[in-house]
Amino acid sequence: MSMLIKGSEQGQRYLSGGDMAKALGITRAAVWKYIEAIRKDGAEVVAAPRLGYRLADPEDVLMKGAVMPATQIIGGSYQYYGEIDSTNSEAKRRIRDGCQDGLVIIAENQTAGRGRMGRKWLSRPGKGLYFSVVLFPAYLPIDQAALLVPLTAVGVCRALEEFGIQVDLKWPNDLLYQGRKLGGILLEISGEADRVRYAILGIGINVNLAKEDVPPELADIVTSVAMIKGEEVGRRLLLEKILESLDSYYRRFSRGGSDTFINEYRSLCWTVGRSIRFEWQGKIWDGFAQGIEADGALRVQTENGDTLALRSGDVHCL
Ligand code: BTN
Questions:
Q1: Reduced to 3 DSSP states, what percent helix, strand and coil does the chain have, rounded to the nearest 5?
Q2: Distances (CA, A) of 120 to 110, 266, 286
Q3: Cβ neighbours of residue 140 under 8 Å, at least 6 residues apart?
Q4: Which of 93, 201, 266, 269 is the most exposed place for a label (fewest CB within 10 A)?
């Protein structure tokens, strides 16, 4: 089916059912069944009498064969779903069954998308990027695995910059635009005492969500690329940029450790330099976010002058 996708990319050409059948060595009825399957999976296929078929918006199609990032590890294998419970949950199932380093799992819609701290993640079919990357960083000590969150945040941030969007990174995992949530990262890891067995980078980005796609209770909290830019963006183009950026940061990190990106994270981190409220050892504290440690922890000075390194949890800016 990649022929259908490539053909339509070249100046929105139509491909006739007969030509596709010939090229693929299948019947016209089989071609029609494929087209119905593609439609069912969420892609809009335009049919014109005597001309044939074309994808309505090739730049927005996320199916296998359409997404072609120039990467070395991330995206080497790729799984697309029209709908799934959660791409992170599917990543765990794939790991259990044996999968390749760098596998990307993407869905048009998630019925049980998960955020951090047991929260739900809002997915809207065809409007966002909801995907997970499976990594096997065998070299990485388990106490440094959390660095994959700021690494991912910087990688996504740089890709969004190429689309004219400058995001703020709220420690540890939020992508914000003018204080509203544009995306988030859910890192799930498993390991032994000294090494990471697997890491799943779950990434959700509100790409083409319009105001009416957002429930009223989230209206003041959530934003999207389309809301910021005033126009929709091709999700395939954005996904390819993100995968390329993540692949490049991840490979540099594998060779050179956190020095390869942590200063970038520091300069993009919106939390640093602010008064914050946070939970630590079962109590609520107020303090001041002083900086980011080499392992990604947030260095905080508490009201009573003590300094501590926050490694997980939520912080609220005061
Ligand atoms: C957060 O902000 O709390 C993290 C949100 C992460 C959401 C993404 S969407 C793709 C992947 N699959 C999930 O179930 N969650 C992550």
A1: 35, 30, 35
A2: 11, 28, 27
A3: 195, 196, 199
A4: 93
pLDDT of residue 44: 87
| Shortest-distance atom of ligand 1 to CA 87 | 12
Which amino acid type is present at position 221? Answer: I
Closest by CA to 60, choosing from 268, 225, 202, is 225
Instruction: Establish whether residue 114 lines the binding site of ligand 1, counting it when its CB lies within 6 angstroms of any ligand atom.
Output: yes
CA of 318 to the centre of ligand 1 (A): 25
206 lines ligand 1 (CB under 6 A): no
Mean pLDDT over the full length of the chain: 93
Over pLDDT 90: what percentage of the chain? 86
Ligand 1 within 6 A of 183 CB? no
Please tell me the residue having the least CA distance from ligand 1 atom 15.
114
Whole-angstrom Cα distance, residue 114 to residue 231?
27
Question: How far away, in angstroms, is 43 Cα from ligand 1 center?
Answer: 23
Query: Is 0.90 topped by the overall pTM?
Result: yes
In sequence order, what are the beta bridge partners of 132?
105, 202
Contact status, residue 8 vs residue 52, Cβ threshold 8 Å: no
State the closest ligand 1 atom to the C-alpha of 174, by its place in the atom list counted from 1: 2
d(CA 290, CA 296): 13
Contacts of 36 (CB under 8 A, 6+ apart): none
